[in-house]
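**Tokenised fold:**
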Amino acid sequence: MTKRSRRPRFGRRHPLAGVSLLVLGLFVTGGAYSATTAGIASAQNTPVSMEQLVDDGEKLFLANCASCHGINAEGTVAGPSLIGVGAISVDFQVGTGRMPMAASGPQADVKPVQFTQPQIDAMGAWVATLAPGPGLPDPRYYAGDGNVANGAELFRINCAMCHNVAGAGGALTEGKWAPHLNNIEPIHVYGAMVTGPQNMPVFSDMNISPEEKNDIISYLQYVDNNPSVGGFMLGSIGPVAEGLFVWIIGLGILIAITIWLTAKSN
């Protein structure tokens, strides 16, 4: 019998060929993804003309907001008019997730933001074309580098009756509430003061100047960054929580000690 040849057959695959193909595929896929991502980033960073920005904002508004506010933002029974509210109102309402509302209620609550900042800017630019209104502020007016002491005094005079002196928030009438002001974006604090959302009054530059608004923002940032020197904050809601703590914990401890002493004497 003829011995079978032990030479490797033509075309036999090397054991590492599969691994090599896998590595090559990963490199090709990663390169294509990087090129695509770079292209998208480049397109996003390309300057957009004001006309294009306004046009994009109108399209976004018609697709997401017109059902409540009307196709010309004139308002309906489901939503108020947006004519004259300015770009900063859009930045506040949409930038905090309050708009679009998830459901009708006494107050629009904060929720995850549904739009990117360029989209919010585009809608704000379109709303700003409808009528004169407050625009986005200069960044130096919400930089948080103002006078903290003056900001604290202004906050106590103008804001603490609803938001609490520590910015912890509080209840209002008819199911509404003043939200807490902890770790809020500075531009949104500024926007709330300028636009007066919900039951909040409008603080124009005649009432509180831009520099004083920056002082208030500086105070709120100081509260965020500095712990309570008095110990437990207990929600920072004032004497109600403190009295409840003393009533339940303090008297509870005294009663427990009394029962223990009585049991021990018997």
Observations:
- The domain at 50-128 is CATH 1.10.760.10 (Cytochrome Bc1 Complex; Chain D, domain 2).
- The first strand starts at residue 170 and ends at 171.
- The chain has a mean pLDDT of 84.
